[in-house]
Amino acid sequence: MAENPYATLHALIVDDFESFRITLSKMLQEFGIGTVDSVASSNDALRYCNSKLYDVILCDQNLGKGQTGQQILEVLRHKPHLNSDSLFVLVSAESNKSIIMAAYDYEPDAYLTKPITGQILGQRLERLFKQRMALAPIYKAMKAKDVNSAIRLCEAEIAAANRYTSSCQKMLGRMLLQIGDLEKADALYRNILDVRQLDWAMLGMAQTKKMQGDFLSAQQWLEEIIQFNPLCLKAYDVLADIMAERSDYQGQQQVLQNAVDISPLSILRQQELGDVSFKNNDLLGAANAYRKAVKIGENSCHDNIKFHESFAHAGIQLAKLDKNLASTVLRDALKVVAEIPLRFGKTNSIKINALLLESQLCVASGEARRAEEALLSAQKIIGADSSVATVDIRIELVRALRELGDRSESDKIIAELLNEYDGDEDQLQKIDCLLDEPCSAKNKALVAQINKDGIAFYEAKDFGRAVDCFTRALQDFPQHIGLRLNLVQALMGNFKQEPEKLTLLTAIQQMMDHIRKIIPDSHTQLQRFRQLEELSRGIVASATSAQ
User: Which of 82, 112, 132 is the last residue of a domain?
Assistant: First the structure.
């Protein structure tokens, strides 16, 4: 009798239906796997994975309450873990495109759709195990982080020209990029592409060109991949990175939007899309992305309190532009903020921040009394536990006080912060977001450069880029009067070029209204504000009469 090559292997089955676990266990035993464990929940699956090494994990996508199969894969792949390199087979009865795309996006070793037969499972596992065994020395070297040995072993396998050549080429390319051997990577991908257009090789070539600083060639490769295979989501990720490095933030937002349209259940892309949209002052787009990130983040290892808070901030800022447009966002944000302590822990710091965000959201929603109550609750906790009064907490407190119109108390806290952290560059950089002029050396230099760039665009009559420049700067320095006045001038120039764009007119009016509320009578740029105010009234009157 032939020796069973799989007798020493260990498998884990994760499925919430006992009957399917039993059926799958029998299939694995008939295939020859020596030890098969099975669990019904994600919690049990991760508990087992923390205590025992498995050769293969077969996991259902829908596990009922708790984490999904995809989220278990996220944990195993993206955190240091005992089973981070186990073969992972995702099993699903789902036909929903979003779920399938999200599953493929996290690169399980195999994806099987129910119903499953013993023959189908056996064929797929045999293929996976044979490759794993044949390339075991490479995987061992990679796990030991001995990249040079892994590269030599891959090159030997490729030279042998066997059935695993393509897999070895893919691994080799990744490792060459990892160590920065771009010349070898370029030659490898070029040789592959001379024979056959493979999307992973095209992606590797694009990454090589990007690392070489040839962004134009990299972008051309990526656009070709997307045309060749629109579902190659990693191409969108690299293209978005290139857009960011080229300071094309509108382009970066569009690329990420295209990616989440294909795979809306990708939490990392939704988070990034929210951040980029917020910086581009697309507050509704930011709110929508953050809302989705919060929703799909439940039970995900990538869930982060930052994006719950950012959702609230997007709603607060959106309400200042359009209360009707913001109404649904504000309602949802209040629910999200109320759940923050339940989701991330009921520490005093978390409770205070949630209350301060609730206060600001209530002001935006027109619920002044509730806003005052939330602020008072936060202040009581701070009063009872002064250790939580960090710079970040006090910055949020100042924002809440300002929203309620208490400039006296907010100015007092700012003065205390500036005195307490005088000379502490890192903390002063944080405090700058509250000031009409930055006090940290780094941000002073940054604002000077932003003004220089924006004014250069303005003088070149490239008003759109000037608007983008000043708009993005105001996300970091929202109280900066000079930046706001520069933005008004850029918007006016843009409107003169494109008078049909009435949204620019609205933006001018909204910006002037905001400056009017925050500019002190003693400000050095008050006279400039008055002049722009007169000019803006003339532009609005002229546009109104022309309609």
Answer: 132
Q: Is residue 342 included in any domain, yes or no?
A: no
Read off the CATH number of the domain in which 541 is found: 1.25.40
- Lowest-confidence pick of 202-211, 222-231, 329-338: 222-231
DSSP notation for 488-540 = HHHHHHHHHH-TT-HHHHHHHHHHHHHHHHH--TT-TTHHHHHHHHHHHHHHH
Contact 351, 395 (CB under 8 A): no
Is 413 inside a domain boundary?
Answer: no
CA distance 262 to 377: 43
- DSSP secondary structure of 387-431: GG--HHHHHHHHHHHHHTT-HHHHHHHHHHHHHHTTT-HHHHHHH
Which tokens in the block code for residue 356?
A: 């301060």
- CA-to-CA distance for 255 and 472, rounded, in angstroms? 18
Q: Quick one: tokens of 318? A: 């959106």
Q: Name the strands in the sheet holding 35-39, side by side, starting at the edge strand that comes first in the sequence.
A: 35-39, 10-14, 56-60, 87-92, 110-113
Does 432 reside within a domain?
no
CB 29 within 8 A of CB 22: no
Cα 164 from chain centroid (whole Å): 35
Dihedral (CA of 149, 153, 155, 156) sign:
positive
Long-range CB contacts (< 8 A, 24+ apart) of 326-329? Answer: 326/364, 327/365, 329/284, 329/287, 329/291
What does DSSP assign to residue 63?
-
CA neighbor of 437 nearest in space, from 484, 401, 392: 484
Kindly indicate the confidence band of residue 2, based on its pLDDT and cuts at 50, 70 and 90. low
For residues 433 and 478, the answer to whether their CB atoms sit within 8 Å is: yes
Which residue is it, tokens 């893919």? 170
Instruction: Report phi then psi at 11, rounded to 5.
Output: -125, 150
pLDDT at 542 over 90: no
Please check whether residue 382 is in contact with residue 370, taking contact to mean a CB–CB distance below 8 angstroms.
Answer: no
Which residue, of 132, 154, 172, is where some domain finishes?
A: 132
Whole domain around residue 532: which residue ranges?
A: 441-546
Res 133: pLDDT: 92
Q: What average pLDDT does the segment 522-539 reach?
A: 92
Give CA–CA dist 331/324, Å, rounded.
12
pLDDT above 60 for 238: yes
Specify the DSSP element, H or E, that contains 36. strand 35-39
Number of domain units in the chain: 2
- Is pLDDT of 9 > 90? yes
Q: Is residue 40 part of a domain?
A: yes
Count of other CB atoms within 10 angstroms of residue 133: 11
| pLDDT level of residue 1 (50, 70, 90 thresholds) | very low
**Residue-wise burial string across 161-198, b where 16 or more C-beta atoms lie within 10 A, e elsewhere:** eeebeebbbbbbbebbbeeebbebbbebbeebeeeeeb
Of 59, 74, 143, nearest to 107 by C-alpha is 74
For residue 91, the cross-strand partners are 60, 112
